[in-house]
Amino acid sequence: MEQKDFPCYFIAGDNASLKAQKYYLRLFRLDLILMCIASIATIYSFNEIELRKYIYYVVFFSIAGALITSLILKVKRYEDIWYRGRALAESCKTLTWRYVTCSEFFENTLTASEAKKRFISRIKEISNQFQDISKELKSKDVCKNIITDKMIENRLLPVEEREKIYLKERVEDQLRWYSTKSELNKKKYSKWFWIVIILQIITLICAFLLIENPESNFNWVSVLTTFSASGLSWLQVKNYQENKEAYLTATSELNLILADYESLDKSQTNREIEFSKFVLDAENAMSREHTMWLAQKRK
User: Fold this and answer.
1) Which conformational region is residue 23 in: left (phi greater than 0), alpha (psi within -120 to 50 degrees), or beta?
2) Any idea what DSSP says for residue 218?
3) Do 128 and 191 reside in the same domain of the chain?
4) Same-domain status, 83 and 203
5) Fewest CB atoms within 10 A around its CB: which of 2, 72, 234, 272?
């Protein structure tokens, strides 16, 4: 299933989250860059008063720009919209897959009308939980279908076909995503960690050189200290280490659930019941990963 095949609130929440994430990270990065520029401007202590004045102008406007950027981040609440939008989208996605696969609360014993009523009711409950970001959702997204033709089409398929679709488009796709993200976060954490360590070592060397040459007009210590602090701030906002562990845990748990389901002798069991239970377990595992991610981001 493609994005357009999911409910309108999934699309709206997903788009709002991605947009807020983009603005938040760009502004946060700009804030750090401006502070670094202000620090770089003070490397050399000029004797000429006129040159010093220009340098102070650079420092002043860089810090003023950083302050304005920080205020924008606070007022616009991009970080909250990012998290809440993602939570809205993931909640709708989980509910959609349960509806499509005829899992718990949307069993295929229900009439089409009753299943639709239950789904719309649950979507309404979810949308009410996220009223705080309703103004961030695009009207063109919210106006789309709550139950799409593709959802209805897949729901009416035999259990064997629903199973194939769910395994390929949900479980296997999510496993690949978790695995890729886990490795990517591991590499990025290692890269930024060593960048910070190297910067701190260079800072220590520069501090020693200043002790040996106190008359020097060059002072790299404050610059490198700012760079190191910026690197640590970036590590904190991106949560590379925590994300890696969360994705690895989710990969392991989801893979075990899949292996347990595949080990069943489906010819000897009620396939519909077993498949419904598998979907519920898999969706709960993926929901736990997202809950952990959200909790880490909220720290």
Assistant:
1) alpha
2) B
3) no
4) no
5) 2
